[in-house]
Amino acid sequence: MVELPRLLHFRISHYNEKVRWALDLKHVAHVREALVPGFHVPRVRFLTKQNKVPVLVLDGEPWAGSAQILDILERRWPSPPLYSDDPTLRERALALERHFDDQVAPEVRRLFWSYYFDHPAECARLATDGFGGGSYATFRALYWVLKPAMKRSMGSDAASVEAAREHLQGHFEHLERELGGREYLVAGEFGVADLTAAAILSPVVRPKEFPYPPPEPWPAGLRELRESVRRRAGFEWVEAIYARHRGASAEVH
Q: 144 φ, ψ to 5°?
C-alpha cells in the first residue's frame, strides 16, 4: 500500500501555507499533521535535525523548507506547472520567491506575532486553535517559558519589530512595482512567484480563502495594521490571487 505524503505544519504560518497551496493546486492527495508552535520541536527535530516547519514526508523521506518542498513537488507532480519552461523567466520567478521568503516573510511573521506576545490568553488561543482545551491549558501554563524561545526564533526584539512595521508599506510597494499593473508577476500566468507573494502576505491580508483563519476577535493592533494597507493595489492583488487560484483542499482525512 502506497503511503500518502504527510505534511507536518503550523495552521497559521505563511511558509506552511505555501506548501499547502502547492499540494492543493497540484491535487496531491496528502495527510496533514498540524503541530502546536513550541511543542513541535521534538517531533520535527527527530525527523530533520532542525526545528522548522513545514516538513513533507515523501516516500518515507522528510524534506524541510517551503522552497525545497515546492521544488520537489514540481519535479514529482509537474502539472499544473509552477515554474516556467523558459530559463530566464524561471530564474526571475525563483528570485522573487527568494525575496519574499527571505526579506518579507520574517518581518511579516514578527509583526503578526508581536500583537499576541503580550497577551498570553490570546497567544495561547492562536497557537492551539483547533487542538482543544487540553493543548490550550498546557500552552497557557507554559507561556512564560515558550514566549522567550519563540521570540528568539523569530528575531522579535523591539527594534526588529519596529523595523518590520516601518517596512510593511515598502513590501507592498515592491510587489506593486514588480507587477507593473499586470495580472501576474512573471510570464503572464500564475506561478511560484505569485503563490509565494500571496501566501507570505496572507497574515496581513487574511483573504477569506485562507484555510485556517485566526480565532476572532483579532487584536486591535493587528486590525489596524491590516487597515493601513487595505486600500493598496498589492493588498487587492493578494485577495484576487487567492480568490482565483487557492482552490479546494487535497487533504485526505
A: -75, -10
Q: What is the model's pTM?
A: 0.97
Q: What is the 3-state secondary structure (H, E, C) of 95-161?
A: HHHHHHHHHHHHHHHHHHHHCCCCCHHHHHHHHCCCCCHHHHHHHHHCHHHHHHHHHHHHCCCHHHH
CA dist 210 and 30 (Å) reads 18
Number of Cβ within a 10 Å radius of residue 201: 26
- And the C-alpha cell for 218? 483579532
Give the Cα separation of 204 and 206 in Å (integer).
6
Cα 209 to chain centroid distance, Å, stands at 13
- Grouping H, G, I as helix, E, B as strand and the rest as coil, residue 178 is helix
For each of the domains in the chain, give its residue range(s) and CATH number, in order of start: 6-76 (3.40.30.10), 87-245 (1.20.1050.10)
**Confidence class for position 1, pLDDT limits 50, 70, 90:** low
CA distance 185 to 235: 14
Alpha carbon distance, N-terminus to C-terminus of the chain: 17
pLDDT tops 90 at residue 73:
yes
Stretch (H or E) spanning 8? strand 6-9
